[in-house]
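Field reference: sequence -> structure
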Amino acid sequence: MKKVFGLVLALFVAFALIGCNETTTTTAAPTTIFALGSDTGHYEPATLSGWEVTRTVYLQIMGPNNTELFNGTVTVVSSNPTFYEAFLGACTSKGIAQVSATDSGFITSVDSYVNGTNSMYWMGSINGDGLLVGANSSQVRNGDFLQFIFEEVSW
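Structure field:
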């Protein structure tokens, strides 16, 4: 009986030690979506709450025919850094005109390019994945690659 108990105890200890091995998980960096340019932008709300975090993202804004309006790094200081805030930081820093709804983050025009012109619309993506919600609801993380492209869409 002592031998069986000793064997069971030894197996239990062995399995317990195997379960205690430290495992490390790594999160792969986002794939580079575009070659990074030298533009810089910054966004920070007029009134700070004291709960802000800083996120640095890479943003490319492309008009029709590969017209590059912005390509570079944007720093967002906000309590909830979003695609929309990065976009505003880029436009403000570079002097690009834009029309958008701050409540929804729906962007209707950038520079002289207006949604619906020749079936072209502004479409956003983060790390190559299209936005599933409005730009002001799409949170960003450090190192994200954001693209905002004026492209032909067939609904």
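Note: The mean pLDDT is 85.
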